Amino acid sequence: MLGLIVTMIIVGLIAGALARLLIPGKQDMSILMTIVLGIIGSVVGGFLGYLLFREDAGEGFLQPAGIIGSIIGAVIVLFLWTRFGSRTTAHR
Known about the structure:
The protein is mostly helical. It has a domain at 29-81. The chain has helices at 2-22, 31-53, 64-85. The chain is globular and about 40 Å long. The N and C termini lie far apart (49 Å).
């Protein structure tokens, strides 16, 4: 169980960092938010992969296709976040 959590954190950090490199512009995110972005991207990428291919990964947790799906999912989540989620309004 601890190995799964550590793997999720590492994959989340890698996927989140690569997504931040691929999406242009400034993203005000901490390392923790980058990890969360990558983990959410992993969920989104896995869900989209299941919808497209109707198969679940049965050969283990850490696969190249899963990492690529995590990066694609993180890019999608970060793109949506920069376009819609991070709008702040100042009331003066």
